[in-house]
Amino acid sequence: MGTLPKLRGKTPGARIKEAYENAGYNRSTFQRAIGMAYSTILDWERDRYAPRYENLQLIEELTGHSPSEVMDEEGSTVTEPQYEAWRQFLETDEGRSMSRNERATLASIHFVGVKPSVGRYRAILFGLRGAA
After folding, report:
1. Percentage of the chain with pLDDT > 90?
2. How far is the C-alpha of 33 from the C-alpha of 7, rounded, in Å?
């Protein structure tokens, strides 16, 4: 399959959409291929929810773009534990109530030497809000 075009979307949802469009899908054909509800794909695109890690692996199979390319910044690697902690945090009240800037800041964090957890994301969010 040659070289894939670099994903340029600014949010994970925009990158998911760009990945499936680059692979020749529209939203309807992509949702059928991945086996998810149309509304779920819309929620991903709108960054309401993040796909589970296993769905990121399906996205990779369908589009050729890795979970790191879809969900994270250039040059980083999304690990399953970090991704799952982030996904679980997004499902909490704090995760749902974040501003776009808070979400972007927290999404860019890479844990090194510590285990990612919902509690760590919560503490960082409270720290961001306290610093403002």
Report:
1. 30
2. 20
Query: How far, in Å, CA of 42 to CA of 46, rounded?
Result: 6
**Whether pLDDT at 79 is above 80:** no
Could you tell me if 106 and 98 are in contact, meaning their C-beta atoms sit under 8 angstroms apart?
A: yes
Dist. CA 129–CA 10, nearest whole Å: 23
Residue 115 phi, psi dihedral angles, 5° rounding: -80, 125
The tokens describing 80, both together, are: 């399953």
- Residue 81 tokens read as 């534990």
* Structure-token match 């369908």, residue found: 62
pLDDT digits (tens, 9 = 90+) for 24-74: 999 999 999 999 999 999 989 988 878 888 888 899 999 998 888 887 655
All CATH 1.10.260.40 domain ranges of the chain, comma separated, are 12-71
For 12-71, CATH number out of 1.10.10.10, 1.10.3210.10, 1.10.260.40, 3.40.190.170 equals: 1.10.260.40
Give the pLDDT of residue 41: 94
Which one-letter amino acid corresponds to residue 129?
Answer: R
